[in-house]
Amino acid sequence: MRFNKQLKKQDEGTNYNPSFEEWLNLFSKEPTSKELDDMENEVRKNKPQNNPYYQPLRGA
Description:
Distance between the termini: 67 Å
Shape: elongated
Order of helices and strands: HHH
Largest sheet: none
Helix content: 55-70%
């Protein structure tokens, strides 16, 4: 009996089908300034790891 109730709850949760507009609104929000700063810091942390001697202006 509990198993059937649990399956029913899972089915109700997975059957949610938002309209395209609702779906788009979930992902189209502009990032906050803190989120932008975090993204910028992540990019700065990443450096070329495969060749430390690579100089983009002079070539490899």
